[in-house]
Amino acid sequence: MEWPLKEDDTIKKAESLHRYLTIFQLSLTAEGISLLSKSGTEVRKKLDSLDKSTLSLCANVEEVKQAVASVDSHVQQIHHEQKYAQFLDWLPTLNYQEKHLDIGPRRLEGSGEWLLNGHAFRSWYEDESSNNHLQGICEATEDKLAYLYVDYKKHAEENAVLIVSCLLKQILSQYPSSPKSAMKLFERFQQNTGLPQWSKIRSTLIETCSDNGNGKHFIVIDALDEYNKGEDRGELLKLIQELRKAKWKSGLVSRIIEGKIHEATRLRAIMKKKKLRDEITNTIVTKAQGIFLLASLQIDYVLGQTTGNEVRKALKCLPSGLWANFQLTMDRIQALPHQSQRDLALRTILWISHSLRDLSVKELQDAVAISPGAKYIDEDDVAPEALLVEYCCGLVTVDTRTKTIRLAHYPIYEYFQHQEQSKLFGFPHLVIAKACLSYLEMEVCRLWWVVTEYHPPHREYSLLDYAAQYWGDHANMCEAGDVKLYVKQFLQYTNAVSSWALHGWCNQTRLPHFRVARGLADKQQATRRPLAPWW
């Protein structure tokens, strides 16, 4: 048997394989070097690119840093604005815009332009120590303005702290941030130490108004004479004096009367004479002594004349005091040409001056239209709203927003309260009590629940709520008269009493003497103001 592999051939093949191995290894090494060389270039490119990106990122980081700083500043500003808004909300205030919105529609076109463009106003506006008496309204362009209408009907809600705080809040709300003068008050707010005291609010208002570095400050308070809280009123007057000492401008603003002269179409031929117009204006301004209510009543009286000589005679007879002018107005009412006009005016004033809450126009229209024994109120018996106001010769006014009718000013209310009632109105509470009972006895009022399914028809029977709730109060306030007879007569109307009681139950309102009328308890224990002594 012979071995297939020979030594020489085997050695040759082994050497051949070794050469191939060497060549293969060399090939692999060259490829590796090529690959390594190629990766290094790419890495350098990558590194160069990364370096550029890093530099760009550094620039972006600086921009981001600035943006973050800007955002932080804005956040701080928003936070401060929110804090300042909370501070303003913290200040107690009054609803000072309601009255302004009410009287706005009655403003005459172009009112005040002659004043704002006049030399007298410009001199006062630019004078650092002026405290002149002005006619008209004042302008507040870039300066700060605060205003308030005092309302005698809201005397229970108003006090010196609220009035001054309301004015201060209006002024501060026109600043983008708290001025230096208000910083102490602002710090007190941040410390949550309770509502501000009178002394703090007062001093802050004086300091703020005294600083003219941020523009001038104007404060307008209308009808301050209607504020009848003696001690508080004294404090307010002292505050006004302090503002004057601080060289702050103050203007006692009264209304113009030229508008009413212009509206007097009946006297247009007479009023063409400028001398007469000037005579009217100068006389009334002097007589009114800066009180708009006097000027308003006096101009109405003067314009009620028919000739130029009568106008001059009326000007000479004008009284100066408030109550004397009220009496003059009542004389005008008594001089109305028709008895029906006089009666309507007196009934209107009686109801408004002695009602226990404000009456809507519709309620008053029903009230003055009531006839004893009538089964219903005929629409043709209802006086138009305009006549209710016109025949009262300026003593009453209508709130256009709430549609309530009231006396024009608080002194008028005081005048009627202090008058000898039996001389002027007889017994006003007796008149109102009898009218309320007559209203409740009307067939339509006794049967309202039948046709409305226990939903009282306020529009159809406007006075029903008032009559049902307040007849007993007026009856108790009667000093004399035959009110007992009317109460007994009313309680004999079973349907009327039942309807009255049901009305109160449906509305969940207080019914005077309800238990007495229903016979559910002893009369002496029925109410806090029993009717028992009348029976």
Features:
NPHP3-like_N; P-loop_NTPase; repeat; 60% helix; mainly alpha; single chain; GPIID_WHD
Structural commentary:
By secondary structure, the chain is mainly alpha-helical. It folds into 3 domains: 152 residues, no CATH class; 63 residues, no CATH class; 196 residues, no CATH class. Helix content is 60%, strand content 5%. A 3-stranded antiparallel sheet has the order 5-7-6. Strands 1-4 form a two-stranded parallel ribbon. The protein has a two-stranded parallel ribbon with strand order 2-3. A hairpin with a 4-residue loop joins strand 6 and strand 7. Helix 5 runs parallel beside helix 7, helix 10 runs parallel beside helix 12 and helix 19 packs parallel to helix 23. The relative contact order is 0.05.
Extended strand count: 7
Can you tell me the overall shape?
elongated
Low-confidence blocks of residues: 131-141, 248-256, 448-459, 512-535
Terminal CA distance reads: 163 Å
> How much is the average pLDDT?
73
Q: What is the rounded Rg?
A: 43 Å
State the secondary-structure class.
mainly alpha
Number of domains: 3
Query: Which range best describes the helical content: under 10%, 10-25%, 25-40%, 40-55%, 55-70% or over 70%?
Result: 55-70%
Sequence of strands across the biggest β-sheet: 5-7-6
> Number of helical runs?
26
Sheet-strand content, in percent, reads: 5-15%
